[in-house]
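Example 3.
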Amino acid sequence: MFATNKILETKLLGFLAEDVGQGDATVAAIIPADTNVEADIVAHESGIAAGIEEIAVLAKSLDLKLDANVADGDIFKTKQVIINLSGNARTVLTAERTILNLLSRMSGIATATNELTEKIRKTNLVTRIAATRKTAPGLRFFDKKAVQVGGGDTHRLHLDDLILVKDNHIAIVGSVEDAVKKARKNASFTKKIEVEVKKPEEAAKAAKAGADIIMLDNFTPEQIRQTIELLRKLGQTGKVILESSGGITAENILEYASTGVDVLSLGEITHSVKSIDLSLEITKVI
Amino acid sequence: MFATNKILETKLLGFLAEDVGQGDATVAAIIPADTNVEADIVAHESGIAAGIEEIAVLAKSLDLKLDANVADGDIFKTKQVIINLSGNARTVLTAERTILNLLSRMSGIATATNELTEKIRKTNLVTRIAATRKTAPGLRFFDKKAVQVGGGDTHRLHLDDLILVKDNHIAIVGSVEDAVKKARKNASFTKKIEVEVKKPEEAAKAAKAGADIIMLDNFTPEQIRQTIELLRKLGQTGKVILESSGGITAENILEYASTGVDVLSLGEITHSVKSIDLSLEITKVI
Amino acid sequence: MFATNKILETKLLGFLAEDVGQGDATVAAIIPADTNVEADIVAHESGIAAGIEEIAVLAKSLDLKLDANVADGDIFKTKQVIINLSGNARTVLTAERTILNLLSRMSGIATATNELTEKIRKTNLVTRIAATRKTAPGLRFFDKKAVQVGGGDTHRLHLDDLILVKDNHIAIVGSVEDAVKKARKNASFTKKIEVEVKKPEEAAKAAKAGADIIMLDNFTPEQIRQTIELLRKLGQTGKVILESSGGITAENILEYASTGVDVLSLGEITHSVKSIDLSLEITKVI
Amino acid sequence: MFATNKILETKLLGFLAEDVGQGDATVAAIIPADTNVEADIVAHESGIAAGIEEIAVLAKSLDLKLDANVADGDIFKTKQVIINLSGNARTVLTAERTILNLLSRMSGIATATNELTEKIRKTNLVTRIAATRKTAPGLRFFDKKAVQVGGGDTHRLHLDDLILVKDNHIAIVGSVEDAVKKARKNASFTKKIEVEVKKPEEAAKAAKAGADIIMLDNFTPEQIRQTIELLRKLGQTGKVILESSGGITAENILEYASTGVDVLSLGEITHSVKSIDLSLEITKVI
Amino acid sequence: MFATNKILETKLLGFLAEDVGQGDATVAAIIPADTNVEADIVAHESGIAAGIEEIAVLAKSLDLKLDANVADGDIFKTKQVIINLSGNARTVLTAERTILNLLSRMSGIATATNELTEKIRKTNLVTRIAATRKTAPGLRFFDKKAVQVGGGDTHRLHLDDLILVKDNHIAIVGSVEDAVKKARKNASFTKKIEVEVKKPEEAAKAAKAGADIIMLDNFTPEQIRQTIELLRKLGQTGKVILESSGGITAENILEYASTGVDVLSLGEITHSVKSIDLSLEITKVI
Amino acid sequence: MFATNKILETKLLGFLAEDVGQGDATVAAIIPADTNVEADIVAHESGIAAGIEEIAVLAKSLDLKLDANVADGDIFKTKQVIINLSGNARTVLTAERTILNLLSRMSGIATATNELTEKIRKTNLVTRIAATRKTAPGLRFFDKKAVQVGGGDTHRLHLDDLILVKDNHIAIVGSVEDAVKKARKNASFTKKIEVEVKKPEEAAKAAKAGADIIMLDNFTPEQIRQTIELLRKLGQTGKVILESSGGITAENILEYASTGVDVLSLGEITHSVKSIDLSLEITKVI
């Protein structure tokens, strides 16, 4: 995901404006207009940094000098200073919470994602960990970017970039076969077609109908193995990507990964984010 | 928090547009334009409903019929149908994820907040549970509204509606007394003045300087009691509101509340939200 | 491409506002505020209708009654009344040009696309005609939708929905193989990977590297045949989609299509649009 | 037409954001973040440059260095490098299509306009070539600016800057005389009043009623001459500007111009644009 | 000035959103969500109504029922109820101030303008009273519309709808003649050309150079008479419109008008507005 | 009130864009693109400067050099040059009116406010002069900032930052006591509660109910004194802030202030602004 800085700047200033309202009443009342400060952004727990690139764009827009001690994707430790920020005191204090809110959320997502991807990596498996569209409203770019920084796969970014036929679609269309057939006919050849299935037999139908990706919805590891075996018998393996979704946790993830499924997708890494505890501390008044 | 429907509609359509991108490729490819459906939004865990009013605004804007079986603030149970939705099939399917993402997040916040406020209520204490500005960027209204639905206090909505002097401000101004003095002189008489303090003695200084609210930052319950005792000796109780912030959890909250502090504020209820598991299921195709 | 009406409405009102400026000076000066009219939108040449759905959204938003005599994708003849519109006279006259400009452009794109797709269809070939990203700035949705209405394939909608490695990318990365390898590793599994090649041998490299789609850039029909033959020898046909781009015109399109290439893409259908000549004529003053 | 750079920048970044979506997936996957490139924008056909000023604003906004070898209004030849661009490789590649789409369209409009204005100029006639409001939705500024660069007259920019009474208005008001009378009474004295007429006699009525400009709608050159003769007899020449609209092409334009009509307006130069074929080629990787 | 309701609605909801912030804290705290009310908007001084059409658009958007007892341009008396409003109590109270602020300002402008235009009308003079571009930032449409409602002329709406050469332009171009010559050559034939002059002799130069309108800047009535006399001698009257600007007040306006000048323009009617005193009073709680 | 420059820039460019429309037709026609100028902004009457900070942000955004000879809050005299501006001639001329309109309005508000605050200050009274929400739609920030620059108190900025119970609220709730009780229960502890009363006895009720601020609506100085006396008897003074509103003018303000009331609020300083007469004069052409 690469958006130019100017496009990001617009979104970031929107977040700041939401917090500022008609103006920061505290700094206007008690902080002189021409004071400058240096400040540290300090981690109070360890994690994986994400949002550094975005905060750098915001800082530049606000005429603040930013030196990052970690890059996106780097590990930081408890008590580590991850960013030095300096510039006008009112601006630093007014932007403090917007900066921390974004950085804490994005780093929280990257850290949770990375915990999962590292587990997989250590076993030498190649299973991908993927996000879903269960992101916070308005934060699609930032949530997905953080997943990617944590080593995960962004999955769909919009409703326009993949045909994903779910149970609700099939309830209307009638069958997996018809849905795939219609999708292949009507959708652009540039899109992959994914189908959500509830049982191994449906996976076989979807594969035969020509799905590029099959989402095994709420399958147990055992059911996933059965599905792979069934597809092997039908000569459908290698052609289709298998994605398992539902019921996967940090605890059982290796059990799922070891089935040989290609992708494990989890809504939790974006819909139930645990923010990383960060704070901004003024270190020098100039 | 009351914003008229039209103001909410603009924000909600922005969330939908983010998800839609250039258009839902799946429904366009396989769902007939004139199919209508009925659908249920079902809870897969119990909780406190929030976001119902907002989703009703979005549904109306999209010409969908919505019947809510629960109102904001009501308890729902696992497997309960909380909303019936009907209308154009493409529209229902395109809006499904936006609806669920907002409803799950808001209900998650309300449920977590309510768990805390109910603990307090059952003890007949009157301690308030308050949120902070640690909301997801762009979601200030929705996160704060959900806190309120869960029985919590919204605290500040913008940087413009309360003077809140924190340690970083004092690092520049020099002393609690000077900060309060300047705030009283320069800020509007319509704003309260809150000061963050690190030790009981600072709380005393802040009270004497005329703070309306004192935030006891990372105080233990024992330190809170000492502070209240100190203020009592100084004749400052009754005039000032005491807010405790930092280190408070669902486990120790009654210990904190029993100190007699007025407000307990927690960043976690908005920065580390656990979404409620909800799904939309089509029940009838027309 | 399906975007809900409310999302379209915002874009369409933006187009109207651009034309209105601070207000329509002519109707304000000479047309009574409470006059109503009936009007016809008449075609002055034959073509394929596109934009009808969009104009219906705009008309509803403006409280105008619209009856369309043709649906998107239908053929209309010279002098045919394609839409009846009625309502407030000032509103009809103020919106006239915005309505016609969009309808004329979209119908022009659909008509040009349809001319090509019909040529293919009549030969019983299944070659797809596709658009490119050479759309008018700000009109991506409308230009692509019109291509689709005309029977064409939208191709990419954004830079986020397909990996398309072009010569400029390869100039930086170094080789087709490296580019595909990096793309496969770093991009989401939900995206297809397309590679632009200049010679049959490069097509072979791209296919072996695992490209999902190969764009044969400025190939003659003869070179396309050589490429298909080469891929057949290498056992790569059937796995990869071949797209031919550059030099294709209405005159030579069957020559290209008969090579067996899967997709023919043309920038002209969106970057050099010939608008359909339509006018709005008031038929009754009420 | 002069709008400050910052106003243009907002529009141009909107065009870029439309193309980028949630981010350029290709450059993010395969182009290193810190690579720099030099690139040429090359013409593949000759024409008149337009959009150079606008692209310079966009390049500056994106921190790209731009050197233009031609200015707006200059002639360029086939194979000529019209712009050198350098900077971050990801940014260049992400912005490539937005830059080319705007430049190709604007140069196409300027070239088509210039072909007409040059024909006139070579005959020493002073007839003006003017555009209409038949511009692409959302591109009013850019289409009109390109007309001007090509030597044409922008005509109306909004519905607010000229009173233009067309047949549909007269159908409601009743007569040319009443329309002009009402316009003169109710519209600002700062606006000219133009009336569209279908016959020479109506032109006489409009002139007598005090129209500043008369649009001769679909008049043949012979009818235009009759109209001028009629106005001369009535002593109305010199006071009123005559504009001929409808049926004018590159082939017959001198025939129209030689009638002595003041202005020839053509919808085609903006509603049926033939884009100039331009490409961006990376020349150096740094 | 006629802008469709939907375009107005967007601007009006922007004004409301500015006032609401994150939500009306008072109604949320104390007014039941389902209470309905009837309310009167009452005038506390007499004047000319303006803004009624705009407020009707806002009321409809907010699902409030509005009955206006006066139309735009009508006279209202002290204590007169000008509007009856009914609907949801929270909505009425939240929108109250936005409604009154706009209505009071627009009616204030219309009343002040009308005072001047009535003075002229009673003398049977036909001098026009015109506004300038000295409107409140962001309120161009509303301020100019109110001038028009009060019987005044809007003058320019944007910098794009009239060529107005002022002293600062002439300081750069060098002379009135050169400025008019360049304007005639480079500007669209659809625009009038106005020139600001400081002395009668300059007015003569401007007229001879072909200006459509001459602004007599800070001329006394005596100087205006001299100018008209000078132009008469030169045979330039009848062709050019004379506008007097600067130093005109309600007291001396007839003295200016009696000179025979065509237009009197005053910045005061929009830059120094005296709002009409209006209030909203709830008359019934349902 | 402190909003970062980038947030201000967006608002200011919006004001400029409103004035520019599709482009400044005059400068485009007659001013060379590469001319530079120096210009003075000159005061034609004395006053208090406000808006200097905002105009500096706009100038920087437009690449103009600005040197201010006065700071916000400073006194300027008739004929004083308050700002020197230099840069591109077209940009200076295009932005001239937007700059002057904002500066004239803000300085007008600051000057009127300052006249009142100075009267108070000279008597050694400490009464505050406060604004209301009667600001021009869309100009809340600028109007309130100007009040503050003039020495006044901004009062509420949004409907979200103070509970203000007015007569219309009480008409629904039933009594002052109930309103305050509900507000105290339902509103955030971070907000003050203000109640509007019509009679001294109601003020007593409000004070006893726990209001933080009491607005004495349309009280005479005598009634204010009675109220203060009554509250003194009830032991309520010192706890509650008294604000007098209605009927206060520059003439009688000291009479009101001498009653000992804490705050005097006036709608006039923002709803009926007299702009300061400023002009921009080009002093050098380069």
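Residues 15 and 98 of chain F are 7 Å apart (CA to CA). The first strand of chain F starts at residue 36 and ends at 43.
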